[in-house]
């Protein structure tokens, strides 16, 4: 059978590692990864790279060793669509790719107001920051959720005016406990980051961010960390999808409409928040169920825990965290975050950590 992995998200890294460690007769006859890049970016380490606290390599996972160990083929291309009825994956430059079993881990992108830069793909963010003239104005981060808040704290370490953080809801870190929000606001103040809530951004135009009733000027770059849309819209693929175009998966991470399609991560609808931690946790379950599908064995349902550890770097060698409703902060939390992030990268970069 031919198993095709669409995208090199966190879950698919574990799938490749799984087949690299499996007996030859337990894997597919042919395994193919489709992704346009030779390296995967680990999202958890990106703020540390932006802040200059970590080298770029701290967030990079070269795919070649994983592909070689798993006996997988790499097609250097972008997935553009899917014909689920004919089992064909549409690609940007190459002919449609037939499959027997397909797994989707193509990720999600932010909803991007006109004139702004999406926080993902990460390489686009890195390029925008590299091209930025610090004297041109300040950087605004749109969306004060966990990702946006941590990015604003990281940007505060870079040359130029202190960044601005904007949120459409009444609070920074909406929906999270008040003690955790208070710690984050204190960190923002110490970093010199100003913020404004109840400000839904409509567009960036001629150096000004426009909301429904007001505007904010002297903005050289606005980075959108708001909402999510699928990087690959599959509403016309034949798969069962939600209204936004995310394919619906069942508890075994298999398509609700097509039993030859699986998926995990931010790019699918699996009843979980859009956050990298869930893709990491889904990886082993996805890998196991792909093996079971290849062998014709019953699938294993996934029962994820409903809470996840949150660790946000402050850009000052400390981190603030939240676990089971308890907030904390300190240099020790940053060391813990660095260890967790480093362990993930080492696991898949072939430098240890089984």
TrEMBL record:
Q: Which cofactor does it need?
A: FAD
- Keyword Manganese part of the UniProt annotation: no
Q: Which UniProt keywords apply?
A: FAD, Flavoprotein, Oxidoreductase
UniProt GO molecular function: NAD(P)H dehydrogenase (quinone) activity
Question: What InterPro entries does the annotation carry?
Answer: FAD/NAD-bd_sf, FAD/NAD-binding_dom, NADH-Q_oxidoreductase
- Source domain of life: Bacteria
UniProt record, GO biological process: aerobic electron transport chain
Instruction: Specify the FAD/NAD(P)-binding domain's residue ranges.
Output: 2-275
Respond yes or no to whether keyword DNA repair is given for this record: no
**PANTHER family noted in UniProt:** APOPTOSIS-INDUCING FACTOR 1, SLR1591 PROTEIN
- UniProt name for this protein: FAD/NAD(P)-binding domain-containing protein
From the broadest rank down, the organism's phylogenetic lineage runs: Bacteria, Pseudomonadati, Pseudomonadota, Alphaproteobacteria, Acetobacterales
